[in-house]
Design brief:
binds flavin-adenine dinucleotide; globular; 11 strands; 7-stranded antiparallel β-sheet; 6 helices
Length: 222
C-alpha cells in the first residue's frame, strides 16, 4: 500500500512522502528483521532515547528488562512512547556530496505501553525475544525460573499508529553532474552472523546444534 492511506496526522511522512508505507505487512517485515529498537519518551521534561531488544507478536511489540529500569517504570506509569527501528541496506554514493544518502527501511510507532501479567503471555514474550535472536535457542537453554520471571518486567505496545519509510535504489544526482569523474553507485551493507566462538574452558565434545551453525560454512568439528 502506498500513498497516505492508513496514516494519521502523526505518522504521515511529509518529507519524501512516496517513501512512506502504513500497511502492516510492510511495517511488520521491518519490525521482525530488526534486532534493536530505540524507545523515546519524556522523563522529567527531558527527552530520552534508550536502545533495547524487542519482538513483535501479532499486533504488539514486546520489550523487557529489569524491574528497576527507569524507562520501563516510566512507560508502565503511562508515559507516551515513540519506538523506532532501522535496517541499513546500503551506502548511496552520489557524484555530488549533496546527494549522498543511505538505503534503509525504518519504522516509527507511537503509543502507550502496558505491563503484561505473570503467566503464559510473559513466557511467550520471552520465547519470542529468544527465538528472534536465534531460532532454536529457546528449546536448548534453561527456562526462566519464578525468581527470574519476577525480576523481569515486560511491556507491550500495540501497533496502532505506525509508519514505515523505505529508501531503495540509486543516487539521485543532478543531470549537470553526469560527467563528473567520481565513482557512483551503491555499497551494500548486510548484517550477518559469524562463526560461533565458545567461552574459554567450555568442554564440548558433541557436534554443535544445527541452529548455531545454520547458514554458516560447515565448521571442522561439525
Ligand atoms: C538510517 C537513516 C538515515 C537518515 N539520514 C537522514 C539524514 O541524514 N538527513 C535527513 O534529512 N533525513 C535522514 N533520514 C530520514 C529521516 O528519518 C526523516 O524521515 C527525514 O529527515 C524527515 O524528517 P521530518 O522530521 O521532516 O519527518 P516528517 O516527514 O515530518 O515525519 C512525519 C512522520 O513520518 C514518519 N516518519 C518520518 N521519518 C520516518 C522514518 N525514517 N521511518 C519511519 N517513519 C518515519 C513518522 O511517523 C513521523 O512522525 C534518515 C533515515 C534513516 C532511516
Amino acid at each position: 500500500m502506498t500513498g497516505a492511506e492508513g496514516s494519521t496526522p502523526l505518522t504521515r511522512v511529509r518529507r519524501m512522502p512516496e517513501r512512506g508505507h502504513y500497511d502492516r505487512d510492510a511495517i511488520d517485515a521491518i519490525l521482525d528483521e530488526a534486532i534493536v529498537c530505540h524507545l523515546s519518551w519524556i522523563y522529567q521534561e527531558q527527552p530520552v532515547v534508550i536502545p533495547t531488544l524487542f519482538a513483535r507478536v501479532d499486533d504488539h511489540i514486546y520489550f523487557h528488562g529489569s524491574s528497576g529500569s527507569r524507562t520501563l517504570k516510566g512507560l508502565r506509569a503511562g508515559a507516551r512512547v515513540c519506538l523506532e527501528c532501522t535496517l541499513i541496506d546500503g551506502l548511496v554514493l552520489a557524484r555530488s556530496i549533496f546527494h549522498h544518502s543511505i538505503n534503509y527501511r525504518s519504522v516509527v510507532v507511537y503509543g502507550s505501553a502496558s505491563e503484561i501479567a505473570e503467566g503464559d503471555e510473559k513466557l511467550a514474550a520471552l520465547k519470542a525475544f529468544t527465538e528472534k535472536l536465534l531460532p532454536g535457542r529457546w528449546a536448548d537453554a534453561r527456562s526462566p525460573n519464578d525468581k527470574e520471571l519476577r525480576q523481569t518486567t515486560i511491556l507491550r505496545l500495540p501497533i496502532d499508529e505506525a509508519s514505515a519509510k523505505v529508501r531503495t535504489g540509486d543516487p539521485g544526482d543532478e543531470e549537470a553532474d553526469a560527467d563528473y569523474p567520481a565513482w557512483t553507485g551503491i555499497i551494500p551493507i548486510e548484517v550477518t552472523r559469524g562463526t560461533p566462538r565458545p567461552i574459554e574452558g567450555l568442554e564440548w565434545e558433541d557436534p554443535l546444534p544445527d541452529y548455531l551453525t545454520e547458514g554458516l560454512p560447515r565448521l571442522p568439528n561439525t
